[in-house]
Design a protein that fits this description.
The structure is a homohexamer. Helices cover 18% and strands 34% of the residues of chain A. By secondary structure, chain A is α+β, with helices and mostly antiparallel strands. The first copy, chain A, is globular.
Chain lengths: 207, 207, 207, 207, 207, 207
C-alpha cells in the first residue's frame, strides 16, 4: 500500500534532481554559467569529494609558497554551486603575491602559523592585519590582496570563494609574465623601463 | 604635477567604494539583500577579520559537537559578499545532526580527524564518504546533510557557504524542539506518536 | 516605403529573440542555468502551454494525496524563466508530507476545500494556518513545510515556484526510502532504531 | 543533558533566521532588492497568508475583467522571495488588455472557464491559444501579452510571477491614460491623431 | 629559479580563464545564460572588438532612423558579461518608435544633435526630456520608451544595455507587423478596426 | 464607464511602480544592493538624466587624461538598474593607467580619435588593439585594462558598465598612493624598493 506512494511520487524524484547539482562535464560544451552537467546517473559521491588539497603544496620556489586550487576545473562537483576552495601553503618567508580574483569574494582561515593578509579598496585605503591560527578574513570581490607568512614556521590556510570559478590574476604575471609590450607597461604603470625589463627577465615575459 | 592626478581622480575614490564592500550595520534597517552598510569612513580592518572561530567549540553536550558560525550576524564583514564560514568541532563520537542550509551550498574541509559526511539528493540518492584530513566535500544547496566523527580523536572542520546568511535548519529541532503539534508531526512524517513525544521531551518541544 | 523599416529592422528581430525565452531541449546538454534551448524556429505555442495539471492526481495511495509537477523537466517552456508550477490534490484525510524545495520559494493558492499548511523557520518557529478557498500562502525557500487536507471534502491547490526546477525533497523518502544506513539515521536524527526500521520497511528503504 | 544542545545551538537559531524571509515593512526604507524587513519577532503566520485573492474582482467595468494583485505591496510576505501572485476575473466577454510585466515572467493557470491567452515575441511571432480549465501557460518576461474570456461563462485564473514586484504596464493606460503629448504618441506609434484623441478621451488622458 | 613560480602556478592560469569571459560560439548549444563558449585558445582580441557600430545606419526609411545592435548575436564577445550596446542614427525628423527591451535597462548618450527621449512607468507617469550632446538618460528595464530627433540636424546616440541579449520589442511591429488577428488587437487595445487594418497594411501584417 | 477601468486598476498603478526603478537617495541607508529609493512621488525626469558627462574632462595633469564617472553616486537614477557610464578624455599622449573595475564588465565606444585599449586575462594572455572612431571593445569583469591615446589628436570615449557601482581600482594609486608599507609592496610585487619609493613620492603615498 505504501508502495502506492512510491509509485505516485517516484517520477518526481527522477526528474527533479537537476535542481540539486550539476557536476561539471569538463569535456562538454561550456556556457556563461559553467560547465555542462554530467548525467546524474553517472554521478557518485566521489564527484563531491576532492582530495587534491590534502598535500602540502610545493613551496620550493622563489615565493616560497604554493596555491592549490579546487575550482570547478579541478573539482567539477562545485560547478554551478556558487562556491569553491583553494589551499595556501607558505613556507617561512613565503608570500602569495599581489593578486585579484575577478569573479569572487574570498574568505581565508588560518590553520597553521601566522599570516599577514591585506587588501586595498577602490578608495585606496589599505586594510591589513596579522592573522593567527583560527582567524578568518574576508577579501571583497575583485580587489588587490596578498598574504605573507608573518611567522617563523610554515603557514597553512584554506580559502573559499563565492564562485566555482573565481579566476586568479597575479599582478606580476599579468604585467611581466607575458608579451605585454614594455612601452605599454611603462605608460600605464609609470614603472621605469629598467624595472620592467628586469622583472620580465625573471618572470619569462617578452615584449 | 602628479598632484594633478590626485586632484583629478580623488573624487572617484571617495565615491566609488560602495561597490567594494558593505560591512553590515546590525542596528540599521535590513533588506532582502542583507544588512545596511556601515559608513565606509568608520570601517577598519577589524571589520574584515573575525577571531570567533579560533577556539574549540564546547562539545560537552549530547551531540558531542559544536557549530560556531561566522555568518553576517556574527561577522558583518561578509554582508553582501556572497560568502560566510563556520567551524565544526566533533569530539569522539560527535555528530552534527541531519540539517539543511536553506540559502546556500557548503564546502567542508577536514583540518583534523576523520569525518563521515553525506547528503541526500532530491532523487533520494545518498552520497556519503569518510573524509580524512585535507579532504573537501561539497553539499549542494538546501539538501539534508550530516557530519559524524568517524575516528577515534577529536575532529575539526571548517565549512564555507555561498551566502553571507545561509540559514541552518536542524531537522530534530525543527520537528521536536518547538510547538509543532504532535498530530501534525505524526501525519506529515509517519513517525509514531510515542517516538515524537519522546524526542519532544528531550529537545524541549511542546504541543 | 514602410518596407524599408522592415528591411532595416528585420535582422534585429531574427537575432534578438534569444533574450525572450529558452524552451528546454530535454535531449541537449544541460548546464547550471538549465536545459539547452530548442531552436527558436521550431518553437510553437504548444511549448508554452501545458495540460498536464488539468486532471486530478491519483490519490488512491497511503497519503491520499498527489503532487503533479510542471517543472522544466515536464514543461520545458519554463526553462530559464525563473518560475514553475505544480498541482496538489488531497483527498479527505490527505497529506503532503513534510518536505523542502532546495531551490525555490513557493506560493500556494487553495482552489477547493480547506488546507492546513505550515512551515518551520531556521529559528524553529512554526507558522501554520488553515487556508480556505482563495487564500494564498508563501513558503520561503528551503524550509520544511507541509499541507494537510483540513476539511471533509477533496481539496485542490496550485503551487508556484520561484525556479523552473525547484527540486523536491520529501523528508520520509530522504530518510527511509533509500539505502541510508540505519545507524547513520539513528545517529543524525536521534530516532529509535525500531522506528527507523519500521519506516524503512514501509517506504522500501534498505540499509 | 539534551538541554546542552539547546544551549549550544540556540544562538544560531536566533541569529540565522534573516536568511529565511524578509517580510516587507511597507513604512521602512526601500531598496533595489525590495522593502526593509519587519523585525522577525513581530512576524506571525498572518504575514505569510493573504486572503485578498479570495473574492471575485469587480468586473462591472468596460473591460468586464479585474486584476487583483498579491505583489509585495499588497502581500509583504513575498518580499525578497522571488515570487508573487494575482487573480484574474473575466466576465463573459471580458478582456485583460495588452500589457507587460517589466520585471517578471508569468505562469497562468485556468481555474474556471476558457481563456484565449497569448504573447508576442521580440521576433514578432505571435503565440496564442485557447486554454481550458487546468491548462497552464507561461509568458516570458517583459513581452506584450493578453487574456480574453473565450467562453460563455465567467472565467477565473491565477497568475504567478517570478518576482515579488513584477510591475504591470497596461499598453492603453501607458499611451492614453496619462499626459503623454498626442504628437509624441503619433510620431512613435504611427497612430492617427483622431484615434489617439478618442482613446485619451475615454481613458482620461490629457496632452 | 623564478621559473619555479611559473611551473608552480602555470596550471592555474590555463584552467581558470573560464571565469574571465565566454566568447559566444554562435553555432554551439545555447542555454538560458547565453551561448556556449568558444574554446579559449581560439579567442583573439578581435573577439572583444566590434566595428559594426562605426558606420551611420541607413536612415532612408519611413522612420528616418536606424538601430544597429551589438548584442551577443552580433558581437559574441559580450556573451555572459552582462552588457551590450547599440547605435542609434536619427536623420532630421527621425524617430525610434515606442519599444521595450524585455531583458535589460538602457543608458543612452547623445553624441550628436538633440534627442527628445522618454519612457512611461508602470504607474503611467511620463518622463521625457530633450537631451543635448553629452547628456545621458537611463530607461529602466522593460518599460515603453522612445527617441525622437528634436533638432534640425542628424542625431547620433549610443545606447548600452544591462544584458548581452536585451531583446527589442517595437510596439508597432508587435501589433501590426505579424499575423495577430485584428479582432484580438481590437479587443486588447481598444483601437478601431480601421486603424488596425491601416497599420497592418503599411507594416506588412496579416490577420 | 471607462472610468470604471481607471477605478478598478488605479490602485495597481500606484502600488506597483516600485518594480520599475529605485532612484538612489544618497542620504538614506545603503545596502548590498545599492542606495535606498527616493519616494516615487518625488522622482522627476531629471532623476533619469545626467549632464555631467557633457563637458570635456580636465586633462591638464600628468596622465593627460580624465575619467568622469556617472555611477550611482553621481547619477542616482541608475541605482538598482544594473548599468552605469563614464566619460574618458585623453589629450594627445594621454593614458588611462592600468586599472580594474572589481564589480563590472565594461564596454567602450570611441567617439573621437584613436585609442589603443587592452586587457590581460587570468591566463596572462594580453588582448589589445588600436580602436578607431565607432569601434567598441569589451573588457571582462575585474581584469586589468588600460586605454592610451594612440593618435595625434584629442580622443573621447564613453564607457558603460554592467553595474551601477562598478568600482575603480587604479593600480598605481592602489600600490603607491596610500600608506601600504614599502616592504609589503616589495614582497608582494617584486618591485625594487627604489622604484617603489620613487612612485610613492610622486603619487603622494607614505609608508
Amino acid at each position: 500500500m505504501f508502495l502506492a506512494i512510491i509509485f505516485a511520487l517516484s517520477f518526481l524524484f527522477s526528474s527533479s534532481n537537476a535542481a540539486d547539482f550539476c557536476v561539471g562535464d569538463l569535456n562538454g560544451p561550456q556556457g556563461p554559467a559553467g560547465y555542462s552537467c554530467k548525467k546524474p546517473e553517472t554521478v557518485t559521491v566521489n564527484d563531491f569529494v576532492y582530495s587534491g588539497l590534502g598535500a602540502t603544496g610545493n613551496t620550493s620556489n622563489i615565493i616560497k609558497a604554493a596555491v592549490t586550487p579546487a575550482f570547478s576545473a579541478q573539482f567539477p562537483g562545485v560547478n554551478g554551486l556558487g562556491i569553491s576552495m583553494a589551499r595556501l601553503d607558505l613556507a617561512t618567508g613565503g608570500v602569495i603575491p599581489m593578486h585579484t580574483h575577478p569573479g569572487a569574494s574570498e574568505v581565508l582561515v588560518v590553520v597553521q602559523g601566522t599570516i599577514c593578509a591585506g587588501f586595498i579598496s577602490s578608495a585606496n585605503k589599505v586594510y591589513f592585519k596579522s592573522l593567527n591560527k583560527g582567524d578568518i578574513m574576508v577579501f571583497p570581490q575583485g580587489l588587490l590582496h596578498f598574504q605573507i607568512n608573518a611567522g617563523k614556521t610554515q603557514a597553512l590556510a584554506f580559502v573559499s570563494f563565492s564562485s566555482p570559478s573565481p579566476g586568479l590574476q597575479i599582478l606580476d604575471f599579468a604585467l611581466f609574465g607575458d608579451d605585454l609590450p614594455t612601452d605599454i607597461i611603462q605608460e600605464t604603470t609609470f614603472l621605469d623601463v629598467a624595472q620592467i625589463k628586469k622583472l620580465k627577465g625573471v618572470l619569462g615575459g617578452s615584449g
